[in-house]
Structures are given as C-alpha cells and as structure tokens.
Amino acid sequence: MSIVNHLKSFFGEEAVNSGRQKELDIAKGLAVIFMIWQHILGVFNVPTYGAFEDFAVSILGSPFAAPVFMFTMGMGITYSRNNHPSNLFKRGLHLFIIGFALNVSRWIIPESIRTLIYGDAFHITALHNFLMMDILQFAALAFVFIGIVKQFNIPAKAVIFIALICSLIGNFAFYRSANYVIADIVGLFIPTNGHVTFPFVNWIIFVVAGFYFAHLYRYLKDKRGFFLMVTPVALVISVTYITYSYIAKKGMFGDENSFFFMTFIGMIFNIILVIGWIGLLHLLFNRIEGLFITFMSGLSKNINSVYVIQWTIIGFLSTLFSISLSHLTEVMLLISILFASYILSNVWKQLKTKER
Asked: What are the pLDDT digits (tens) for 29-46?
C-alpha cells in the first residue's frame, strides 16, 4: 500500500469530527499565552534580556503563535455553525472595528493620560497609533475573503492558487511612502514601511490552509493513527528548517520585519509545523481532562476579548509606569496579565449574556 493510500485509510466517508476539537482549543490557548509573553518583552525594559527571552520571542512568540492562531482561525470558520457569507462579513467588520478600538485603548488613551500627568509628548502621533495595522485587522480581511469565497462558491483549487500567488507577491512587493498614513493603510494589504505587522498577501495562506485542512479534518476517523504517522515527519521537517533559520539568522529571523513579512518558503514550513503541533497536542492531551483543558478551552472561546484585554493592560502599564523586568518578574507579569485577561474576558462574556 502506498503512503497516500495509507493516509486515505484514516479518513471515512462521513464527517465524524464535529463541535469543538480539544487539540485546536489547546493550540489557540497556547498561542495566546505565547503572544502575551512576546508583547511583554516587546514593550517593557528587560535589562537581563538574553537567550531565555530571545527563545520566548523568536520561537514561542513567532512560529508557535501567529501562524497557529491564523491556521486554527481558518479551521474554526469551517467548524462554525455561523459561517454563512453574511455572518462572515459581519464578523469581519466587527473585528475591524475592534482592531482600531484596541489601538485607542492600548496606546492613545494611556498616552493621553501620560501627557496630562507628566507633560510628555506622544511617543508617536496619535493618528499613527490609531492606524496601526495588527492581527485583528488582518483577521477582519480574512473573514471577508472567506465570505467572498463562500458567497461565489469559488472552487478550492482556485482559492488555494490565489493564496499561493498572494504569498509569492508578498516575497517581492514592498511599498515605501514618506506619508505614514498612506503607508499604514496600504500595509494592510502588502508590506510597507508603515506600522504594519500582518499584510494580507503574506498571511492569507495560513487561513486558507486551515480552512481547507478542516474540510478533511472533519472526516478523520482515526486521529491517533493519522497523527502518529504524520506528526513526527512534520515536526522533524519544520523544526529542522526553523532551527537552521534561527541559528543562521535567515528567513523569518533575518531582521525585525522578516517574520511579519514572511516569505513563501517560510510560510510552507510554518504550515507544516502547525499541522505537526496540532497532532502533538492531540497525542499528548486527547485523554486528559481537568483544569488545564478547561482553562485552554476558555482562552480559545474568548480569544478576541482576551487578546484585547491583555494588550490594553500592557499598554497602560508600559506607558504610565517605568518598569524594568528580570527573568522572574517577567514570568510573574505574564501569569498576572494572563489570568487577569482570562477573568475579565469571562466577566465581559457574562455581561453580554445578561444584556441579551
């Protein structure tokens, strides 16, 4: 039996995986934790910054964070009951508004308070802060894109081809403008010299890959057998590439923009990593229940509110107070912000439920 036929044997004729998938919740929960850690190290002063922090930012906060988040977001769209095009368009608009509201809450409000208290000028202009294009704005575009795909029933091969072409465009396209407003807005779509992190052309391939992987995943009748075969290969291939790139400071580790403006090759290896990572989490936690699983599921369900709350806390603390972190205090701050965000997100969810 060929390898392809052996892989096909793990899939059934009917969809057997419906509802929430534990390994996806854990993957998203860990991605949020790694993102928070990266945000802390990105805005606070860490005099003892060394290999420990570099690993947290470059490895945990990079390949194991945003790519996982976007891939699982694509899978989540497939699994969602509310994936009608109109619902996806509404979710996209909602995320777009939340993204700019977050820029106000994490930067403009604390900067304004600091100016009133200390008389300091804004670190950068308020408009530049407001137009910061981050992961929520990208997610908004991704929802709209998938909504268009579903609205016009665009064939899977065509969508995958578009995503691949977009990724290749992201390898070469770079728009530079002396006007930061233009650079910020254009940076939502392609790499620019503006304050952008996740241009559409570079990152949509993750969402598309997750979206169609979930179509297969629903029919995966033997997860354990499939991942016992696929996970070791996927992790060896991807981790080898990432380790080489990290040591050689090439690819996604070349400079400060290399990860956000990731090339086509980097995207492919990161997708392989995400599949291997999901498989590993399934193999490790499939039969485990308890507080850890409940906590990860809560992070996954409230991922948008947790993301907004943690960034708002970090924005206020880093702007209004001069804080230097040691190895110990950065971990303590990570734990504190994580649990505060988790608790407040559940409070927010309860308030919304009562309003309804």
From this structure: 999 999 999 999 999 999
Tens of pLDDT along 228-276? Answer: 999 999 999 999 999 999 999 999 998 878 999 999 999 999 999 999 9
Interatomic CA distance for residues 188 and 180, integer angstroms: 13
3-state DSSP assignment of residue 175: strand
pTM of the model: 0.95
Give 121's DSSP letter.
P
CA–CA–CA angle 305, 110, 96 (5° rounding): 40
How large is the angle between the packed helices 291-301 and 327-355, nearest 10 degrees?
A: 60
Using the Cα atoms of residue 44, residue 46, residue 50 and residue 51 in order, give the sign of their dihedral.
Answer: negative
Q: Residues 18, 216, 136, 239: what is their CA dihedral angle, to the nearest 10 degrees? A: 120
DSSP lists the bridge partners of residue 196 as: 133
Degrees, nearest 5: CA angle 57-64-225: 155
Kindly list the distances between the CA atom of residue 74 and the CA atoms of 67, 68, 171, 198, in Å, as whole numbers in the listed order: 11, 10, 22, 15
Angle at 196 between CA 107 and CA 110, to 5 degrees: 0
Task: Please state, in angstroms and as integers, the Cα–Cα distance from residue 77 to each residue in 80, 81, 97, 298, 327, following that order.
Answer: 5, 8, 19, 18, 38
> What stretches of 152-263 show up as alpha helix (H) in DSSP?
156-172, 180-186, 200-217, 223-248
Name the H helices within 104-174.
109-118, 126-130, 135-151, 156-172
